[in-house]
Amino acid sequence: MKNDKRICRICDTQDFHPTYTGCEMMFGTRELFEYFQCNQCQCLQISDIPLNLGSYYPNDYYSLVQKKEKENPIKNFILKQRFRNAIFDKGYKINKILSYFIAMPEFIIDYKHNIVNLLKSSSITNYDARFLDIGCGHSSAWLNALSVMGFKNLFGIDPYIGKDKKHGKVKILKKDLIDLEGEFDLITMHHSLEHISDQKLTISLASKLLSKNGTLIIRIPTVSSYVWEKYKEKWVEMDAPRHLYLHSKTSIELLIKQADLEIFREIPEAIDFEFYGSEQYKRNIHLTDSQSHWLTRDNLLFSEEELSDFNKMADEVNRKNEAGRICLFIRKKS
Ligand SMILES: [Zn+2]
């Protein structure tokens, strides 16, 4: 019911927080869900976490689709040498020679900066580094790329997959985070935190699993953005009901602090998707509709000019630090 007093699940403030109605627009069921935005920390959160959350992740849900990667041992060897130089500043001479044969690939996950840049901002110093990717689905593009680069301690975890998986050096465990033991030097949450019910528990468990000088990378959508202000309930990243939390910069910082961690770097990561996806929602076209630009990329839904504007707007909000997506680098409090 609207106008109920609600308790913020991040800062515990109980109040008459303003409410919003999110609409299921990935698969287009158009089921409605109430969200509220905390008066205190501005975290936008679903009012009641659905009991049947799993049913909103059908088998063709994008992160759960199993992908097969092609292996090419010679190319992989050369890539490993090139990455060794790029990440650790080693093997300069061989890298210079190899650069004539193979271009440095841009392992872009879903944004313009590549893995090398992410690794250079973290605490990784050698190939023994231990990686954990939380909420990665059946297959982690991130871990697969790290495997090609020569890393070998590569773990993913996701409670929603059918069973444990192994692709080469990458091991993906069907497990809850609470059941995982060990220590990791780089823990990543690539657009998975917003899907998880218990935010405080998840971050405190990630903190426990982080090595002393380790780095936690969290990539999330944020309401501290131009797109939230412009589109509100039509914002594509609201993704009701799968996105249970749309953090503000204040609320994510609070969550991190509560686990004795600190943010040491933030990168804005807006992409054209947050603009064209939201424009689609405004036109009542869901993401997997046959007309959807997200699916086809070659349709007539948007003009060339509009598509170019979406890219320009993404660049602009990144410049102004008003992006709808951010990447946070986090470490233990010193
Ligand atoms: Zn709050």
Characteristics:
single chain; 334 residues; alpha/beta; Rossmann fold; eight-stranded mixed β-sheet; four-stranded antiparallel β-sheet; 10 helices; 28% helix; globular; binds zinc ion
Largest sheet: 8 strands, mixed
Integer tally of domains: 1
**Portion in strands:** 15-25%
| Tally of helical runs | 10
Shape assignment:
globular
Rg to the nearest angstrom? 20 Å
Determine the fraction of residues in helical runs and give it as a percent range: 25-40%
Report the span from N to C terminus.
Answer: 44 Å
CATH superfamily: Vaccinia Virus protein VP39
Derived from helix and strand composition plus strand pairing, the structural class reads alpha/beta
CATH class: Alpha Beta
CATH topology value: Rossmann fold
Number of strands: 14
Runs with pLDDT <50, length 5+? none
Q: Which strands sit side by side, in order, in the main sheet? A: 8-9-7-6-10-11-14-13
Order of helices and strands, N to C? Answer: EEEEEHHHEHEEEEHEHEHEHHHE
pLDDT average, as an integer?
87
CATH structural architecture: 3-Layer(aba) Sandwich
